[in-house]
Amino acid sequence: MNQLKTEKIDIHGIPVILVHPPMETGKPAILYHGWSSRAEYQLTKASILAVNGYTVFIPEALYHGERGALKDFYQKEDYDIFWKTIFRNMEEFPFLSDYIEARYSEKPFILGHSMGGLSVLGIGSAYGKDVKGIVSFNGSGDWLLTHLFIQARFGIYVKKDWPLYDEIEKKSPMAHLDTLKDVPIFMTNGDSDGSIDPRAQAHFYEELVKAGGKAERVVYPLLGHFVTTNMMDDGLQWMEKVLP
Fold first, then answer.
1. Tell me, what DSSP letter sits at residue 39?
2. Please, which residues bridge with residue 242 across strands?
3. Packing angle between helix 143-154 and helix 115-127, nearest 10 degrees?
4. Nearest-angstrom CA–CA distance, 108 and 131
5. R_g of the chain computed on alpha carbons
């Protein structure tokens, strides 16, 4: 019986868990974890991808796991770190992409849950030509609306002169629909998600479709902030459609 091979590697200072399929197929994928999680907690999702032939790279996000994990991820004072982590995921993507291109001569799929689901849409808005497709689980492409919903959830009030406000607005996928309309995108949300309000993703999806985007979205009734096996199956089926 074939076993999945797992190893830890370093790519330009980024700790990455690499999960190999039973037989190498040249189908790379990058899987981004969510806020307060860590790379090693993604092995179940990565294994599902790997048994379907994908070589999965799981990067550790800054301020998580072995990269200086916060003691408390839900202090209001640290709210800005949530967005700074997303921006760092965007900045670090070219190092992962170059590494993958050199070894597989293929563009990777990029997938992510929650904060990772926001990150992959941000990466696509900046580096869309370098990805094969995007799968955003419980994420959002309307970052300003998500910023508003997060404030309401945690009782935070941030004025427009907050230093990160302009950066969120400029880097939000909503500001880059012309780039993203040419990138295959699959989005899933639970309609009862209390962490990343699905209304933000719904608005982004509507605007992306209006712009001519190649996007699909599935909403799961009564589901909260979770990645289910149904979501994984739907994402995999979509990825197989995107593959040449």
1. G
2. none
3. 160
4. 5
5. 17
Residue with tokens 């992409």: 97
Could you give the 3-state DSSP secondary structure of residue 169? Answer: helix
Q: What is the DSSP letter of 133?
A: E
- Structure confidence by residue, pLDDT tens digits, 148-207: 999 998 888 888 889 899 999 999 999 999 999 999 999 999 999 999 999 999 999 999
Among candidate residues 56, 57, 59, 55, the one with its CA nearest the CA of residue 15: 59
The residue among 64, 73, 21 whose CA lies nearest residue 40 is: 64
Q: Are 94 and 40 in contact (CB under 8 A)?
A: no
This prediction has a pTM of 0.96
| Helix (H) or strand (E) segment spanning residue 140 | none
Distance CA 153, CA 179 (A): 31
Average pLDDT, the chain: 95
Q: What is the dihedral of CA 3, 21, 34, 109, to 10 degrees?
A: -170
Which residue has tokens 């048994």?
51
Give the whole-angstrom CA distance, residue 100 versus residue 28. 7
Q: Kindly list the strands in the beta sheet with 54-59, ordered across the sheet, starting from the edge strand earlier in the chain.
A: 5-11, 14-20, 54-59, 27-32, 109-113, 133-137, 185-190, 215-220
